[in-house]
Amino acid sequence: MTGMLKDKTRFVPPPKLPPPTPVVDLSDAEMRMAQDLLFFAYRDFTNVADQVLEELGLGRAHHRALHFIGRNPGITVSSLLAVLRITKQSLARVLNALVDEGFVAQAPGFEDRRLRLLTLTEKGAALERRLFDAQRNRISQAYKRAGPQAVQGFRGVMRGIMDKGARDYMDGTGAAEDA
Amino acid sequence: MTGMLKDKTRFVPPPKLPPPTPVVDLSDAEMRMAQDLLFFAYRDFTNVADQVLEELGLGRAHHRALHFIGRNPGITVSSLLAVLRITKQSLARVLNALVDEGFVAQAPGFEDRRLRLLTLTEKGAALERRLFDAQRNRISQAYKRAGPQAVQGFRGVMRGIMDKGARDYMDGTGAAEDA
DNA sequence: GTTTTAAGTCAACAATGCTGACCCATTTCG
DNA sequence: CGAAATGGGTCAGCATTGTTGACTTAAAAC
Predict the structure, then answer these.
(1) A149/B160 Cβ within 8 A
(2) What 3-state DSSP class applies to A5?
(3) Which of A22-31, B15-24, B123-132: highest mean pLDDT?
(4) B101 contacts: CB under 8 Å, gap ≥ 6
(5) How many domains does chain A fold into?
(6) Which end of chain B has fewer CB atoms surrounding its CB within 10 Å, N or C?
(7) Which of strand D's nucleotides are less than 7 A from any protein C-beta?
(8) Does any domain span residue B104?
(9) Residue A105, domain CATH
(10) Cβ distance of A41 and B162 shorter than 8 Å
(11) For the segment B158-174, what is each residue's pLDDT rounded down to a tens digit?
(12) Is B15 domain-assigned?
């Protein structure tokens, strides 16, 4: 019985204390820091919108859909799937909720009537605005404090981290890209 | 019936097509872009480690725990909770799995024997290394391409986006901070 | 007129958050 | 010393959001 640890087989004797953490080279520490940066910044950035979402019984997935539909009015379901990289079923849940509650409207395509062109309703645009405003504060504060040059660097690095596909999407001016 | 849309009440007539997306001011577009950057960079960065994790039947939550224990050898459970900002129960699931499978070791504190000091076992450190290596490529590529100045900017902006608490943690040299 | 394609749907499952309610061992404090 | 506070653990149940697999329907393409 190792004190409070009960006898749970779970106890493993400590490896002589701090396993000396290799500390390979300097840039290694930089890379570790980048992990932290991404984790914290993303977590806290997304959290900003959560309060508003909770009020409405929506989740982050809904926010993402609203965001990308707002940025790409008339986007098709399959393009949206390609951007989000989730399955049709996952999107369906979220999208149906948004349509049911009047945040998103869908119209059949003109040329190809199989397509469902997605747009935000006014209600949807208003919600997206609200969510955006919350997050915008964060960003603009951070941008302001860091300065325009830092912003340039930020963009460059972030672009470098993402997949080529995402980079391409972003280069498409935010208009619906072709998967 | 409106073609393929069946009769699902779900159909909402299109709002005259692209609700003109206000386009308030220039900096607004910048902020929107930042949302995209964060979403894509974070998604693709975390994805990098997923393959390795899947092999082992572990998830991202396990990775996070490994990461922060690795960076803060001897961290207590409550400090880890404070860093991750999740509940004890959520952490327990993940931590128990890691201990059971020999990735993490725990030792009672010397001064205060209620504490459980967490460290990576060699096996755990090796796994963390593996996961890290995958992600390191991304980062170092991005850093290299963007240049050292951009990296500075990246850090500044990311720090600005996160909560003060996270910033403080990071300033603690990555050594276990006091909640 | 057959085959693709865009979209929708049912069912079931897994990971990871959460809350609420307790228990135990240790430390602290009156 | 004895009570309260603290660090940690656990059971049970639930929500969100991701996954697979299998199948349908409507429209387009060939």
Answers:
(1) no
(2) helix
(3) B123-132
(4) none
(5) 1
(6) N
(7) 6-13, 16-22, 25-29
(8) yes
(9) 1.10.10.10
(10) yes
(11) 999 999 999 999 998 54
(12) no
